[in-house]
Amino acid sequence: MIEGQQASLVGLPPVDPDLYKDSHPITYKNAALAFKGDNLDRYLMGRQFMVLLVVFVINQCGGPLDPTVDVLGLPDGVKLVFLDIGLGMVIFTCILGQLTTQVNASYHMIDFINNYFALFTLYVTMIVEFSGIMHSSYLIQNILSAISGKPIISNEPPKTGFTFAFFWGRVVMSLAILGFCLAVVFEALFTGRTMMTVKYPSIPNGVNVFLFVFFMCIVGMLEGMQIAFFAVAKLPATERGTSFFGKKTCDLLFKGNGENLPGFMIGRQLTVVFSFFLVASITGLNITPGEGNNIFGISDGAQAFLNYGFHGAVITTILASITWQLAASAFPIAFLNNPVTYILLVLALFLEFTGLCSGAWVLARVMKAATKIQYDEVYVGTPEERMANNHADKELTTEQDVGHLAGGGFAGHLVGSHDALDGPIASKDAIDEAA
Question: Residue-wise over 203-212: b if at least 16 C-beta within 10 A, else e?
Fold first, then answer.
C-alpha cells in the first residue's frame, strides 16, 4: 500500500476530485487530506521513512539465522545466492511488495486507494512526518535551495511565531536523533556487534564500515538518478548532458522514444531493494537485551526497540535517500555528468533485461482481476473528455513540476507521466500485453 498509494496520490492532483467524490468516497477522503496545502510533500517524506523501516523489519523477519542448514535439499551455491546473499528476499519484496502494486496503481489510481487501509496508511505517514524524525531533511533542503538558487515552492503561508519555533525545534530534535543513530551504527560496526558479524564473521570490522558507506552511496546515487532523469526529460537533447558520460547516459536512457526509462526504473528498484537489505544487515544489531551488552548502556527496552532497525532506517532515509533526491533536484546536470551514473544505468538496464522482476506484470493482472479495479478513464474519462465536460485538469507549469525542491520528492506531476519516486512507466496496455 505504501508503494501503490504513492502512484495514486502523485498522479491524481490535476484531476477534479468532484468527478470521483460520489463514486469513490474514500478516495476523495484520501485526496482531501493529501492535497491540502503542502501535505503531499509531507506524505512523501513520511512514506520514504516507512518504506525503509518496513524493508528493514522484513530483513529481520526473513533473514536466515544459519544459511548453511538444509533447505529443500538445495545445493550450497543456490543457498549462498538466495539465502546468504539474500536474492530470494529481494525478489520476493520487489515483486510482491512493490512492483505489482505500483503497476496497478499507476493506471487504477482511483480504485486503488478507495479503501480504509489506504486512508490509514496516509494518516500514519502524516504522523511520521509530524513527529519530526525526518525534519533534518528540511534543513538540507534549505541549504541546497540557497546554494542552487532554486526556491522552495510552498502552498502555505510562511511560518511565524509558534509554528516557526515548533518547526525548527523538530529540526534540531531530528539532528540529535540522526547523530545518535550514527553513533549507534559506528559503535556497533567498530565493536563487531552487527548482523554482519553473525553472517560473515571473517570480514574485518573496518571492511564492514566501508561496505556501509559504499552501499549508502549506491542507494543515494540510485535515488538521485531517477530525480535527475525526470528533471531533464523535458529539456532539449542538446541540454541534457554537458560531458562525455553525461551525453552517453542521456543517449542510452532516452534512446528512441525514451524506451529505456521504464527499464531503468524496474532495474533500479531491484538494485535499491538489494542495497536496502545489505544496509539492513550491516546496521542491524546483534545484541540480546538483558545480557549486559546493550549499546551505550541503554535500557533493555530501548535496545529491543533498536534491534528492529529503527536507527538504520533513519540514517538511510535522511542521508542515503532524501538528501540525494534533493541534491539531484538542485543539480540534475551534475548527476548526469557523473560516470557512476552511467555505470549504474547500465547495471539497472541489465537487471531488467534478465527478467527477474517480469513476474510483476502477470501478478498485476491477477491482482486486477481479483480486486476488479478499473482504469481511471472508466470513472473520470480521458483528459479530452474532462475538458469537454468543463472539468479540465489543473494545469501545472514546468517550474511546479521540476523547478523547485520539495520535501520528499517532487509534488504535482501530471497524470500518467510517471511515479514521483519509485514507480515503473509503461504504455497503458502494458499490463494486458505483458500478461
Answer: eebeebeebb
CB 63 within 8 A of CB 279: no
Q: What is the pLDDT of residues 159-170, one digit of tens each?
A: 899 999 999 999
Joined grid coordinates for residue 199: 553472517
Q: Are 427 and 62 in contact (CB under 8 A)?
A: no
Q: What mean pLDDT is predicted for residues 100-113?
A: 89
| Grid cell digits, residue 65 | 539465522
The domain locations on the chain are: 2-434
Q: Does 385 have pLDDT greater than 90?
A: no
Helix (H) or strand (E) holding 80: none
Q: What is the pLDDT of residue 414?
A: 27
Q: What is the DSSP string of 369-406?
A: HHHT---THHHH--HHHHHHTT-PPPP--HHHHHSS--
Closest CA relative to residue 230, chosen from 420, 4, 5, 8:
420
Angle 10-12-17 (CA atoms, 0-180°, nearest 5)? 145
SS3 285: strand
* Euclidean distance between CA atoms 238 and 235, whole angstroms: 8
Query: Cα–Cα–Cα angle for 213, 215, 221, nearest 5°?
Result: 105
Question: Average pLDDT of 326-343?
Answer: 86
Cα(229)–Cα(213) distance, rounded to whole angstroms? 24
- Vertex 342 angle, CA 341 and 345, to 5°: 85
Grouping H, G, I as helix, E, B as strand and the rest as coil, residue 150 is coil
Q: Is 408 left (phi over 0), alpha (psi -120 to 50) or beta?
A: alpha
Q: How confident is the model at residue 178 (pLDDT cuts 50, 70, 90)?
A: very high
**Residue 132 and residue 122: Cα distance in Å, rounded?**
16
pLDDT tens, residue by residue, 337-352: 889 999 999 998 998 8
Instruction: Tell me the pTM.
Output: 0.79
Residue 408's identity, in one-letter code, is: G
Q: Is the pLDDT of residue 275 over 90?
A: no
